[in-house]
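*** Residues and shapes ***
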Amino acid sequence: MSSENSVNRDLILLGHGSGGKLSHQLLDDLIIPTLSGIALAGQNDAAVLEHGGRRLAFTTDSYVVDPIFFPGGNIGCLAVNGTVNDLAMMGARPLFMSTGLIIEEGFSRTELAEILASMRSAADAAGISIVTGDTKVVPRGKADRIFINTSGIGAVEHDLAISGANARPGDAVIINGTIGDHGIAVMAKREGLDLQADILSDCAPLNGLVAGIIAAGGEAVHVLRDPTRGGVATTLKEIALQSDKTITLHEAALPLNGAVRGVCSILGLDPLYVANEGKLLAVVAPEAAEGVLARMKDHPLGRDAAIIGHVTEGGGRVQMETAVGGMRAVEMLAGEQLPRIC
């Protein structure tokens, strides 16, 4: 083995933050074994903890999106909604959150005020209280304008077991709307692309939609997951591996904004791997699928909801039934398709 290859294996790459294959390798080989040893089946969007006879969900995330202002939102509302949504994916009612600001010297107070106002507005809309935080300022060139870390706590007020490990044969896979909007909106702003069409980030709090899903489906709701970094493909692969099942997608059923489809076609991007910030995947028992779908369509964030696939027996695979009737394998994002997207 050459010394160059040995050194390269020791380096952290942008792809390690993609949410895809390299991210999972870093987690599985180093971070999780060292810090906690949580098994694959327990690796969800938030931890569910028992305390004093109550079930609580707890999550944390950091936001480094570039640019910090983009069509449909900014880093502030993204940070709040991201934390709210991770709690919601465990079926929790968001209660409290913290925020940590890492600000580069020279950052605009006017822009900071706009970001903070967006955070407060997003928190109020989701019904979560920002109760503690921290602020650090680093020298010029030691950060990229502003980074935000958030943590959140929510109450799990039911006995449902919602986890990526719980997908079952026969389950339907439902998404609440069009895919790839956030990633394409951010990329277009970053690269200064004139798309001749309005593509907005789908950044939004999903806890209200989730409450309706649980009310309609109850114990039939087996998995909830928001397909952020790595997109729908990577998230479904995670669920397939956790549950040791096969998930088959139907290409013709995927809801896709026409403008997003066009941009992806021109740039050679697969929308299945593009990040979302206001979308969720619900894996639901077949007898409840139509009822859950109807309930989702009644919500403003679920009007374009669709059943896009189903679960069968099999070992950790995702496959796509193409529009022409063929079948292709769907794997995790291999590298970093669109860096700094959340």
